[in-house]
Amino acid sequence: MATSTRDSNFASKVTSFSVGLPARKPQIARWKTESRMLRSSSTNLLRLTIRRRLAVGAALIGLLQTLSAQQAPVAAEPSQDTSSESGYMRVLLRPTHPPVFDAQHRPITAGGFVDGAPVVFEDITHKSGLDKFHHQSGDPPNLNILEVDGSGVALLDYDNDGWMDIYLLNGSTIAAYKGQQPAPHAMLLHNNHDGTFTDVTEKAGVANDRWGFGVAVGDYDNDGWPDIYVANYGKNRLYHNNHDGTFTDVAEKAGVALGGWSAGPSWGDYDHDGRLDLFVPGYGKFDVDLHKTCDLQGAQIACGPLSLLGEPDHLFHNNGDGTFTDVSVKAGVSDPKGYSGWASTFVDVDDDGWVDLVVANDSRPNYLYRNRHDGTFEDDSFLSGFALTEDGRTMAAMGIAVGDYNRDGKVDFYVSNFADDYSVLFRNDGDGIFSDVTTQAGLMRPSIPFLKWGTGFLDYDNDGWLDLFVANGHVFPMVDKQNWGSTWAERPQLFRNLDGVHFQEVPPATGSGLADVIPARGAAFGDLFNDGHVDVVINNLDSTPTLLRNVVNNGNHWVGLKLIGGPKCPRDAIAAKVFVTTGAVRQRADVFSGGSYGSNSDPRVHFGLGAATKLDKVEIQWPDGTKQDIMLPGVDRIFTVDEVKGLQ
After folding, report:
1. Residue 552 pLDDT greater than 80, yes or no
2. What is the pTM assigned to this prediction?
3. N or C: at which end does the chain have fewer Cβ atoms within 10 angstroms?
4. Is 408 left (phi over 0), alpha (psi -120 to 50) or beta?
């Protein structure tokens, strides 16, 4: 079909964004208006016309980014010329924001500490015993992209004792990958219920011994016990829970081992058959024997993602007999463009009762696939506004936070991004349309100096508003020698939700967990000590992990819920939605897998209640479509709700 003049005009607008011309906010607003018209209009011609225009623009973005990166042809070695590469390298070659220093002239990424500020998190890594684990990824000076990205972490109750345990992925080395030296081990740490953890990796059989990047937890066989999927460079693993504290790797038998370079996976029942399906993003085709370095102002560094050929994404349908079928192409989520996927999650973005799929891509447009209810998805990435930033640029997207931060009943996203750029807060405006409201929220400026990875919404002070946590750390050790206001190891950031519109950074109290300067990567969130406070576990590159215990003591109340699905939905209730009402306040929480960079958080939902001492209403929308109202007898407890048996 010939391209129309209107198609060409639209494509030229998108093209101007992709090469960094000045932002055109009025045009973006007009296109979003067209998108809303498309959702509400009954005119199929309008729908098709706008989709075609978006497709033309998307195709040109992909072409221009490929050219700007001087992408190598198939079977060729990656190009060393990265002078015009977007995202990962461009901002470092020509930083666009001035360096930021604190009063002691320390880079703000490793400074800005405030004496006497309230302590939110206490670093109990050593006290808890987590420092027995040490992550390893490559060998100094870490001159390839495989070595600098790091690994995720999962929180799960593997033995069903009611307490969250911790699974830390490890990296590897090229020598270990080739079988020339022992491989670093992942570590499963059992929660001892007293603030400490015990290494049970050997007994459990989950050492992985491969180059681990992402982990997702889900009960794929509906036996009531959580299973673990590990995404590696090389073949992946599916650890089936044997109900006795041990696991068996069944990835080959199940048909989900893959190969190549896989990243942040997620579980979700996309076809409403009551069984969890599996999505695995591919990052890039990397050859340990052929990689080259890139030159950054005379220093040799790891080349960025656009120097790699893309790895396809995979959607595996659960056959119900312990095996899976790859339906990626049929479902329309195989990523034929070859983008570098880092994180993913299944969540119902338009509240039609079917999980949709979002994927964070590194230096490429993000994906938002809307579920068509027939086993296939529609690529609504550009139409939804989720593909690009407000000014039409791609992100070096690392992780996805999922939550209803403004309490309007719709799920929103926060996507972490590279240094010298901002992470993006995507507000859900309804009907699957998202707006970049980062600037209005006050989140743009504080995030720019940091290189952002694991992220999540959490109500750290139990006031009923979802706050935001970001784990930070750079990818180039030599950044410490530059005057950019950035450092290799960086402190995490916590942003307090003030009113559902605005956020404010919580001061990093001197000596507290927020003052930890660490090379952070994966981050998972959950109530590790069953005390009603959300804690954070961070997997740090080439270092020991960090366990941040939430020590806020403000008297606010809370409630937690563990959900058990019925016979027609996943047993672990992934994709369930819970709404709690106290007075005029109604909050939403979703049970989901994945999201944060390579990581999986506590599957139980948590609600801060502020001063409220009772709940007026609790509504559960189960994955099979069943809606259930329950009454809880109190607060400040974690309750278990079975879809069939009710409150336990």
Report:
1. yes
2. 0.89
3. N
4. alpha
